[in-house]
């Protein structure tokens, strides 16, 4: 067995009702899914489909596209048909685009009650159209576009205000006997966001879409999202996630998947166990770890590779991994499944590890 055959799990998922976004199940019976959103103009059909293909290749489960204009709504049927993964139409301000998106074959529609003023009057018609087409919805409440009535009542976008908005909108759909929706209550502050989702999770068994909205550039956004999602997912809260970064959407998917893998919620693929290096290091650990990661980045099976700078913890970690190197004196002891198979010069370490990973994959019929 490679990788970590019996990973520890954090605890049970919160029980939710189950919905579908196209072929992807969302709810406690399904694995936590990863979403992202295209940054192209949706009317740029080829550009949008190209970006969706890149997201699909990166492991994205569900993609959302913006529908700000009639022209965007008009091309949804092509995007929905040609996308390899389920498409969610993201709609603000114009309820009529919701109907277009449903007719276009989108797997789901995201509606933001705070941005659809006459939304309440349209709920019955939206519920009927979605139900007839087997399309699910996301009620996407966002701190930046909270219903003005609630903003006035609560003074600002507090957890209570966000939850009140979500619960109210959920009740409108439920009154029409429509239950195929998930809810998000996003805030840019991870602490507020965590408190909001915790409160919402207490109020009903809706599947929840997690997001720290406007989380920032890649470094800050990754940490904010990891901190908030880590807390909630450890409590079993969260059925689908989107890491929002001011960075290309493929980066959002990489972060999202890595986050789920780190929490034992997805099968780990390549896992590099590398030391931070210190004054004892006898090789350039940073470069070595980066080169090994780059060389093995296409590994699609669980493989733990230890890259260690010296003999203090090196042999121990290298022995625990599927593959490893413990360096010393400009050389690397190469371990496979706990056995030293050979010692190679520093310059050959990366190449040897890559060759051994390929050999393991071939032997076990993996790719
Ligand atoms: Fe330092 Fe060696 Fe530990 Fe790396 S393995 S951090 S070089 S003591």
UniProtKB/TrEMBL annotation:
<keyword id="KW-0414">Isoprene biosynthesis</keyword>
<keyword id="KW-0479">Metal-binding</keyword>
<keyword id="KW-0004">4Fe-4S</keyword>
<dbReference type="GO" id="GO:0051539">
    <property type="term" value="F:4 iron, 4 sulfur cluster binding"/>
</dbReference>
<comment type="similarity">
    <text>Belongs to the IspG family.</text>
</comment>
<dbReference type="GO" id="GO:0141197">
    <property type="term" value="F:4-hydroxy-3-methylbut-2-enyl-diphosphate synthase activity (flavodoxin)"/>
</dbReference>
<dbReference type="InterPro" id="IPR011005">
    <property type="entry name" value="Dihydropteroate_synth-like_sf"/>
</dbReference>
<feature type="binding site">
    <location>
        <position position="317"/>
    </location>
    <ligand>
        <name>[4Fe-4S] cluster</name>
    </ligand>
</feature>
<keyword id="KW-0560">Oxidoreductase</keyword>
<dbReference type="InterPro" id="IPR016425">
    <property type="entry name" value="IspG_bac"/>
</dbReference>
<feature type="domain" description="IspG C-terminal">
    <location>
        <begin position="271"/>
        <end position="357"/>
    </location>
</feature>
<keyword id="KW-0411">Iron-sulfur</keyword>
<feature type="binding site">
    <location>
        <position position="278"/>
    </location>
    <ligand>
        <name>[4Fe-4S] cluster</name>
    </ligand>
</feature>
<feature type="binding site">
    <location>
        <position position="310"/>
    </location>
    <ligand>
        <name>[4Fe-4S] cluster</name>
    </ligand>
</feature>
<dbReference type="InterPro" id="IPR045854">
    <property type="entry name" value="NO2/SO3_Rdtase_4Fe4S_sf"/>
</dbReference>
<feature type="binding site">
    <location>
        <position position="275"/>
    </location>
    <ligand>
        <name>[4Fe-4S] cluster</name>
    </ligand>
</feature>
<comment type="function">
    <text>Converts 2C-methyl-D-erythritol 2,4-cyclodiphosphate (ME-2,4cPP) into 1-hydroxy-2-methyl-2-(E)-butenyl 4-diphosphate.</text>
</comment>
<dbReference type="GO" id="GO:0019288">
    <property type="term" value="P:isopentenyl diphosphate biosynthetic process, methylerythritol 4-phosphate pathway"/>
</dbReference>
<dbReference type="GO" id="GO:0046429">
    <property type="term" value="F:4-hydroxy-3-methylbut-2-en-1-yl diphosphate synthase activity (ferredoxin)"/>
</dbReference>
<dbReference type="InterPro" id="IPR058579">
    <property type="entry name" value="IspG_C"/>
</dbReference>
<feature type="domain" description="IspG TIM-barrel">
    <location>
        <begin position="16"/>
        <end position="256"/>
    </location>
</feature>
<dbReference type="GO" id="GO:0016114">
    <property type="term" value="P:terpenoid biosynthetic process"/>
</dbReference>
<dbReference type="Pfam" id="PF26540">
    <property type="entry name" value="GcpE_C"/>
</dbReference>
<dbReference type="InterPro" id="IPR004588">
    <property type="entry name" value="IspG_bac-typ"/>
</dbReference>
<dbReference type="Pfam" id="PF04551">
    <property type="entry name" value="GcpE"/>
</dbReference>
<dbReference type="InterPro" id="IPR058578">
    <property type="entry name" value="IspG_TIM"/>
</dbReference>
<protein>
    <recommendedName>
        <fullName>4-hydroxy-3-methylbut-2-en-1-yl diphosphate synthase (flavodoxin)</fullName>
        <ecNumber>1.17.7.3</ecNumber>
    </recommendedName>
</protein>
<keyword id="KW-0408">Iron</keyword>
<dbReference type="GO" id="GO:0005506">
    <property type="term" value="F:iron ion binding"/>
</dbReference>
<comment type="pathway">
    <text>Isoprenoid biosynthesis; isopentenyl diphosphate biosynthesis via DXP pathway; isopentenyl diphosphate from 1-deoxy-D-xylulose 5-phosphate: step 5/6.</text>
</comment>
């Amino acid at each position: 067995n490679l990788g970590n055959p019996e990973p520890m799990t954090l605890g049970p998922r919160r029980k939710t009702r189950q919905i579908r976004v196209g072929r992807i199940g969302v709810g406690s019976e399904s694995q936590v899914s990863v979403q992202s959103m295209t940054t192209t103009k949706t009317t740029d059909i080829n550009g949008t489909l190209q970006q969706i293909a890149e997201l699909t290749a990166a492991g994205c489960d569900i993609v959302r596209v913006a529908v700000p204009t009639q022209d965007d709504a008009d091309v949804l049927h092509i995007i929905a048909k040609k996308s390899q993964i389920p498409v969610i139409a993201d709609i603000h301000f114009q309820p009529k685009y919701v109907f277009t998106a449903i007719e276009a074959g989108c797997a789901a529609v995201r509606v933001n009650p705070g941005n659809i003023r006459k939304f309440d009057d349209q709920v019955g018609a939206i519920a009927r159209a979605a139900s007839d087409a087997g399309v699910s919805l996301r009620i996407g409440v966002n701190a930046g576009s909270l219903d003005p009535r609630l903003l006035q009542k609560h003074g600002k976008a507090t957890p209570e205000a966000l939850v009140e908005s979500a619960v109210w909108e959920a009740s409108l759909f439920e009154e029409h006997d429509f239950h195929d929706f998930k809810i998000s209550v996003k805030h840019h502050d991870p602490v507020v966001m965590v408190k909001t989702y915790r409160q919402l999770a207490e109020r009903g068994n809706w599947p929840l879409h997690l997001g720290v909205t406007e989380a920032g550039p890649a470094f800050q956004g990754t940490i904010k999202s990891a901190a908030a999602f880590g807390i909630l997912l450890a409590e079993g809260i969260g059925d689908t996630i989107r890491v929002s970064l001011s960075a290309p959407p493929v980066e959002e998917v990489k972060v999202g998947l890595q986050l789920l893998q780190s929490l034992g919620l997805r099968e780990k693929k390549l896992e590099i166990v590398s030391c931070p290096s210190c004054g004892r290091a006898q090789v350039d650990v940073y470069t070595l770890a980066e080169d090994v990661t780059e060389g093995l980045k296409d590994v699609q099976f669980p493989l733990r590779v230890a890259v260690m700078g010296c003999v203090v913890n090196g042999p121990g970690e290298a022995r625990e991994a599927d593959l490893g190197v413990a360096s010393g004196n400009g050389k690397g002891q190469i371990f496979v499944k706990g056995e030293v198979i050979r010692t190679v010069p520093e310059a050959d370490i990366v190449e040897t590890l890559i060759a051994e990973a390929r050999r393991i994959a071939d032997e076990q019929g993996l790719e």
